[in-house]
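Entry type: protein chain
Record version: 2
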Amino acid sequence: MTDLRLVIFDVDGTLVDSQTHIAAAMEAAFAAEGLPVPPHEQVIGVVGLSLPVAIATLAPDLPADQAARMLDTYRQSFFARRVGEGASPLFPGALEALEALAAVDDILLGIATGKSKRGLDHILEAHGIGHHFVTVQVADHHPSKPHPAMVLAALSEAGVAPADAVMIGDTEFDIEMGRAAGVQTLGVGWGYHPVERLAAADALVHSFADLPAAVLRLWERPDG
């Protein structure tokens, strides 16, 4: 391992506000099968899980062929909206926070997301932020959050020890994943899970303006 430190970001609900596209695509998937559309809060509550797990969570008794059709409908709907409306926007202050952390000599940045590689590549390209990340972990290659595989892979690729890493996310899936991998965790209060569900995080922030300092403070803690 090196003397470097790693800051791992979730994407949906943490860096980008994608709930409009996600909710619309999920509505299309359920409606195409003649199924009642879950309430918005339930749909947003599964953001961060890999798509097959998210659909299974919202509709646990679906036959396999129907679930497969819903996956296809979701992806087609999401892609169509992305083409028509453009990429989901970054949250205010996200770019500035990324640039501030990237400017610290011994800090590396990574991503651990429930998005597909195709979806993430579009986001990174649209916002011109891909160059900031030395490791990128996506749902295509790992079990769904909160399994720690994505964080463990990020640590391995970056050559950073768990004690020198932080997982940042807006859902309890992110926090559970980080804790399972042995890294510190930072919850953000502007995302898709209410802050009550982030109680297990080592720290919580409510503004991107406060995020870089909060990350550095985690490493100043006696157990950091």
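Comment: Strands lie at 5-9, 107-112, 133-137, 165-169, 184-188, 203-205.
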